[in-house]
Every structure is written in C-alpha cells, then in structure tokens.
Amino acid sequence: MKEVYGWVNEAGLAVTVVHPDLWTTRKWGSGALVASNNKAREKAIEVVKNAMDMSEQLGANPVDVWFGQDGWEYAFTHDYMKAWDLVAESLAIECDHDPKVHVGIEYKIKEPRVHMHFGTLGKVSCSTGWSVPGTSSL
Fold first, then answer.
1. Topology of 14-127 in CATH?
2. pLDDT per residue over 30-44, tens digit each?
C-alpha cells in the first residue's frame, strides 16, 4: 500500500474514497453484509473494516459501501425483517470499528440483483436515520 500511496502522491493526486469489494467475486454471490451465512457476513464485515483502516492510512474519508450482492430476485423469497436487522448490525459493527472514518452507503435501484436493499435514497435515509440537511428524518 505504501508503494501505491507513493505513486498517488508523486502524481500530485489524492485518494478521496475507498471502496471495499463486496460484489465482484463468487463468494459474495449469496450476499455479503446481509448474507444468511454467518461466516460470509463476518468476512464481509472484516473487508469493510480493512477498507476503513486503509482509508485512515491513505487520508481518504469516507469508505463507500455498496450492497451490490445484498438483495433478492423474487418477492417473498427473502426474510426482509431479518435482512434489515443484519444491515443495522453490520453497519453498527463497522461504524464502531473506527468512528473517525465515515461510512457512506451507495444506493442503486437494481443490478446485479433485481431488488436491492439500498435501492433508493429514501431507503438509505429511513434505515439509517439520515436526512437531507434542512429537512427532518422520517
């Protein structure tokens, strides 16, 4: 990492955000931070924590978490309430890991899943208590 950071500095650039990879490899095919497999979910949490450590070392803030494999294809095939509990638990563990590093949630309506847990800004704000400055949270 020091070598990469040296290249970035030498080029006169800065690292502004770190994206933990929770979507591109087969191991995340059944979900990452909302995986029903506890070992997979624990590994995903560790990936985010490592990204947070890297972010701190590189002077980048925030870490951008995309729940790319955390979703479902067909209605009623998913335990929605359990999934939201896992989302809250995963984010709490990550945020407690290093409160100085901000954890951003990237939302996307679909792809690769047909339905995403964080598909809209509304879902992000309702699930995290965040609100647009000057407005109130639901």
1. TIM Barrel (3.20.20)
2. 889 988 889 999 999
> Domain segments of the chain: what residues?
14-127
Question: CA 91, CA 128: separation in Å to the nearest integer?
Answer: 9
Q: Quick one: which H or E segment has residue 5?
A: helix 2-10
Token representation of residue 35? 């995986």
Rounded to two decimals, what is the model's pTM?
0.84
* DSSP string for residues in 42-78: HHHHHHHHHHHHHHHHHT---EEEE-TT-EESSTTSS
Phi and psi of 81, rounded to 5°?
-65, -40
How big is the chain, counted in residues? Answer: 138
Token pair of 92, please?
């709490």
